[in-house]
Amino acid sequence: MLVGPIAAVWIALEARPAGAGVDTLEYRLEVSPGQGPSETFQWRDGSKSLELELHPFLTTSDFQTAKVVSAGLNTPGRYSVELIHTKSGAKKYREVADKDRERQFSILVDGKIVQSYSFPPEQKGVHDRGNTIYGPFTKAEAVTLVRRINAEIRAHGRPRTETPRRVKWDDFSDSTQGGE
């Protein structure tokens, strides 16, 4: 069994209008041979395929937003996409993780696998919050993917959360700043 995230190679997004009838974003459990009905899905780069459950356990309506994040210190100038679950999406994610801890799941965008994960050995609140699609992407690729996902989230009636404004020292009174 593979543990942890498996890096996915990203190929430019296919043009498809938001709300075109198929969920843009899904999580599906993997199915072992003979384990039950399944559907074959290809990785985005076409390198391999996996058997996944017929029905997703999370769909676009279970996500609050997607955002571009740095891929990390070891990959400067590269980016990943962070996915944030809604409250009900986090609850569903935890329920599936608690029930199917030994199974892997895949994140699909437009019916193509972009990331596969194992559930953590112990489910903690931080895991319920969301997941990351590791590219590593160029900034343009990550921004395009985030815009695509967020457009679909809005098309499903979920407004994207507002990004809180940065607080400046000027926003505080002198007493809050230690009287300086």
Layout of helices and strands, plus pairs?
Blueprint: E1 25-29, E2 38-42, E3 49-53, E4 63-70, E5 79-85, H1 87-99, E6 104-109, E7 112-118, H2 125-129, E8 130-137, H3 139-155
Describe the 3D structure.
This protein is α+β, with helices and mostly antiparallel strands and 180 residues long. The chain has a single domain (25-161), classed as 2-Layer Sandwich (Gyrase A, domain 2). Helix content is 19%, strand content 28%. The protein contains 3 helices and 8 strands. The strands form 3 sheets. A 3-stranded antiparallel beta sheet has the order 1-6-7, with no helix packed on it. Strands 4-5-8 form a 3-stranded antiparallel beta sheet. Strand 4 and strand 5 form a beta hairpin. The longest helix has 17 residues, at 139-155. It is globular and about 40 Å long. Mean pLDDT is 77; it is low at 1-21 and 159-180.
- How is the main sheet built? 3 strands, antiparallel
Number of separate domains: 1
How large is the radius of gyration?
Answer: 18 Å
CATH topology: Gyrase A, domain 2
Number of strands: 8
First and last CA, distance: 58 Å
Return the CATH class. Alpha Beta
CATH architectural grouping:
2-Layer Sandwich
- Number of helical regions: 3
Query: Could you list the spans in which at least 5 consecutive residues all have pLDDT below 50?
Result: 1-21, 159-180
Q: Which descriptor suits the 3D outline?
A: globular
**What average pLDDT do the residues reach?**
77
Please trace the helix and strand order, writing H or E for each element.
EEEEEHEEHEH
Structural class computed from helices and strand pairing: alpha+beta
Helix content: 10-25%
* Order of adjacent strands in the largest pleated sheet: 1-6-7
Q: Tell me what portion of residues adopts beta-strand conformation.
A: 25-35%
